[in-house]
Design goal:
Length: about 260
Amino acid sequence: MTLAREIAPHLPLLRRYARALTGAQESGDAFVVAALEAIVARPEEFPRQMDPRAGLYRVFHKIWESGNVELNGHLGEDSPGARKAHERLRALAPLSRQALLLTTLENFTTQETGEILERSPEEVGTLLDDAIDALDKQTKARILIIEDEAVIAMDLSDLVTAAGHSVCGVESTASGAVAAANRELPDLVLADIQLADGSSGIDAVKDILSSFEVPVIFITAFPDRLLTGERPEPTFLITKPYSPDMVRAAVSQALFFESTGNLN
């Protein structure tokens, strides 16, 4: 199998990870493009001793660490996307946050995370401890949950409450979600894609973002349906089935950037 075929299936999730690091689709994709360009230019330098997905992330991190990406060249010098990307890149995710996202959002093992970041497993453990300490000091948020499955909605409520946040509403339909958002003005929205009455969580979020800006995290069992590159995509995306640490990390990163859901 060619290198291109080996890494192609992993590109959607790398794009998700890149956006979680930068807080924006445009800047995240710019780093992914730069990583792919580096692989095409020097395929012999791809870390073949690693699993293809981990190797792809390692190449990405070498580009990320260098910061040698001309974002304007990808976005257009005067575009709002370029300006927002540069603003967010002033607050690049520290190494501890990278380790947290790799192990929680991306489900890499501590060993794999160490290989990607070129750190020992012991160093990764220390980074994860630092990330958890940072989470505990984070400003607490009022969170709106849009989820039509009662058990999942209850689980998400318990998870965010245990992390010190509060739940200002739980809605199972798009119309109910929009009404609750306009009434409660939450600090963060957790949204499923498919809702109880056949309505769309994506449509609900678009309506909410047309009224005010709020960070949004989508939850879906089919992330590949949203990570196509054919339309604006959510910056923060949790895959079902999720783990408590995955939810905690995504909420932390979304609040860190205080970004919109990137769908407007």
